[in-house]
Structure formats: C-alpha cells, structure tokens
Amino acid sequence: MSVTITGWVVILVASFLALTRPNAILPLALFFVPFSATSVINISAVSYGLSPAVFLLIVFCGIQAVRGQFLMPIRLSGNHLTGILALVALAAYVIVDLGAGGLLGGLSLFQITQSAFLLFGIGTAVLVSILIHSDKYFLMSIKALLWSGVFVSFWGMVQAVCFYSGIPYPADVFNNSISDYADMFDQRSLNVIRIASVAVEPSFMAFSLLGIFAFSATVVTLRGASASRLQIAAALLSGLTILASTSTTGYFGLAVFGVLLFTRKPIPVLVVGLLTLAAFVIMLAMLPEFQQGVAAMTVNKTASGSFTHRWSTVIEGFEQFAERPWFGWGWGFSTSYSMVTIVLANLGIAGALLMLMAIVMALLGSLLARSQSSSEYEQERVHAVAAEIAFLVSLASCCISGFKYVTLDLWFLWALLLGLQTRLAHAPSSSGISDRDKPAITFSSVSS
C-alpha cells in the first residue's frame, strides 16, 4: 500500500479543511468524482486505487459522525423520502439476492467487491441527497460540479497538447491509479489521441462530462443572458472536449441531450446544433487524422475488437438472464456492457423492476416538485430540469456503454435530482425565512 504524490496533497487539504471548514469537504469530494484514474492510496495486493472522491467522502462521513451530525433530525419532502425508500429497497434486494445466490452456488470475491461498489454508490446517492438540499451544501456542490467540468476539460486539452507536441504527458499527476483499467487512458486511434483526461479511459471521461455538460448547457439554455460565466464555461468546454474525445459514448450522449432539450427549447437547440455540426464538419475537413479517428470510433466501430467484445457480453447477459429470469445470479456475476442486460442478468426481473421503480420515482418526484413549487424558486426549477436531463442522458449512455456504478457520477446526479425535490417543496414562510433554513425536527410530509 502506498500513498501517491497527488494523494499526499489531497490528504493535506482534507486535514486542513477538517480543522477549518469541514463542510467544504463534501463539495471537494464531488469535484473529484470524474477523477476515476486518480488514486490517493494504491493498494497493490488487490490492484485497487482509492480515488479522491471516495477518500474524501469517507473523511467527511467520519467527521460528521464524530460531530454527531447524523443523529440530528432531518426534514425531507414526501417525494424525496419516497425516492430514498426506493433506493433503500433496491439496496436491500441486492444484499438478499446476493446472500441467496451464495447459499445456492457460492460467491466469488469479484461479486462481493462489485456488490460493495454498487451499495456504496446507492448509499452515496441517499446521503448526498439529504445533505445537498440545505443551503450550506447546495450552492457549493453545484459550483463544484461546474468547476470539475472545466478542469477535466482543461486537463484533456493538456493531454492532447502533450501528444501532438511531443511533450511527455505527466501521467503521475492524475493518471496514477494502480487499478487494472487505469492504464487505458493512453489510447490512440491512428494518429489521433483519444482524450481520457483524468478518467481511466475515454468513454469514462465522456460519461463524466456528459452529466456536467447536460446540466450546465440546460441551465444556460433556460436562463439565457442571466446564466453565469462559470455555467457558460462549463457547458462550452465540456461540450468541446466530448466532441474532441472521439468517444462513441460521448457522441451518443450528445445526441440524446439534443433530443431532450429540443422538446423544451426547439429554436435555440436547433441553432446551436447546426453551429456545432458546422464546426464539427470543418474540423473533419481540416484535420484528416481527426476524420480517421472519428470514423474508427463511429461508422467503423462495428469492425473493432472492442465492439465485438462488448456486444458479446450483451448477448451473454441475455443468455444468463434467460437461465435465471426472476431473481438473477446476484450482483457481479454478469459484466455485460449494457445497463439493461447487467441488471436483468444479475438481479432478474424482480431486481430490474426495483431499479426501474427507483428511477421513475426520482424523475416523477422531480416533475411533481417543479409543478407544485413556489414561483420564488425559479432557480431551483431550472436546476431541477437540468438535473432531470443530465440524469436521463447518463442513463441512456449506461445502456450502450455499460452501467458505470463503480464511479460516482450517476449517483451524484441521482442525489441532486432527489435533493432538489425538498428544496422546491419548502417554500419561504411569512417571516421570509425558508423552511430549509430552520432547525429541522422531523421528516416533512410536504407534498412536492
């Protein structure tokens, strides 16, 4: 076990914040969510790198537990609470299903570790959703999300510049994880670098940026001239980085985002879409290498070895589901590269229905919260729409490139979607003080 150079910096910063501003550790953890190739501590015995986001969340939870914060009553809207209960039911099913599978045929270490990752993600979504609805965390967390998109895009540009200029890329800074998958960040397609930035590989980076791009671009589109410079920068830089990444996941996610936003703002989306398409075509025309790289990752993708492998896992997932259709094989048995088949094969129809229920409850709760919220919460309503679109884009991407439950990107968007429901439900009182700023005494049954 060894601490990386970046790990020492993260540990020092976390220690300083623990003594001065412990509440800032949570937004910092959210900033590091896309850094899947970065490790604080490398554990060579199991080839695992503890990411900054997970490390900081553990530190944050430890501090809050010592301070007794988890024992304080909390105030949640009815829809928020329903969404949490749906996730808790899913987690309980995963545990029971895994235990039953172990009794019937035994469990592998891989199944146990993958189940732990899934349960940690669900737990993170629940915890962050409860915390993020309060004013002291909400704005800091949104800014952390946007700044993360800006930095990941910037580091992706650094990777590209190093490749094309021949300058050695400083991989030890943010691509230092000992994980078996972390060395896939350095991919080339012909003479084009496939940008991975701080992620383990290009599709993971594209997936992380898609959520940030969809959120920030929706906010910018809906708010127009009142959008902040940070929101505009996050949308512009993350969008351009996804376009330059040559990631099929990224291009598919952008298409899904365009369709979803078109239903709300058809004219602006059409104009921006045409301008983006024109810029993309110009890049293809002026840069033959880029043209070849994009072709290799899109129209010629079906001829690649990676596509053949991923598609074979999808077929295998359906076959595994057919063998145990009702309750599945237990989480971690199937490693299918599609959220649909991996959930069906591992959890069966019963577990898939629970997963679907949790997703629907989160989205439906957000729709109800927006429709019934006070007009004074226009900013929250915009954020809720942005969270819904980002969540749907991420889910769609998981269906074609694998359920990325090990990283926390989707779980944070899930938490944001739930947390906003309580913010929208607690309208200002006659005293001008928001309910969410008052000392909470119980769960709220406020309709959202």
H/E order of the elements? EHHEEHHHHHEEHHHHHHHHH
Shape: globular
Overall domain count: 1
Characterize the largest beta sheet: strand count, sense, and whether it forms a barrel. Answer: 3 strands, antiparallel
Low-confidence stretches: 427-448
Widest sheet, order of strands: 1-2-3
Organism: Skermanella cutis
Protein name: O-antigen ligase family protein
Membrane topology: Multi-pass membrane protein
InterPro entries: O-antigen_ligase-rel_domated
What would you say this structure looks like, in words?
This protein is mainly alpha-helical and 448 residues long. It has one domain (79-437). Helix content is 68%, strand content 3%. It has 16 helices and five strands. It has helices at 5-20, 25-31, 52-66, 78-105, 109-132, 135-165, 171-174, 202-223, 229-244, 248-262, 266-286, 288-297, 305-323, 339-372, 378-401, 409-425; strands at residues 2-3, 41-43, 48-50, 187-189, 192-194. Strands 1-2-3 form a three-stranded antiparallel β-sheet. Strands 4-5 form a two-stranded antiparallel sheet. Strand 4 and strand 5 (192-194) form a beta hairpin. Helix 8 (202-223) runs antiparallel to helix 9 (229-244) and helix 14 runs antiparallel to helix 15 (378-401). The N and C termini lie far apart (47 Å). 48% of the residues are buried. Mean pLDDT is 84; it is low at 427-448.
Task: Describe the structure concisely.
This protein has helices at 5-20, 25-31, 52-66, 78-105, 109-132, 135-165, 171-174, 202-223, 229-244, 248-262, 266-286, 288-297, 305-323, 339-372, 378-401, 409-425; strands spanning 2-3, 41-43, 48-50, 187-189, 192-194. The protein is mainly α. It has one domain.
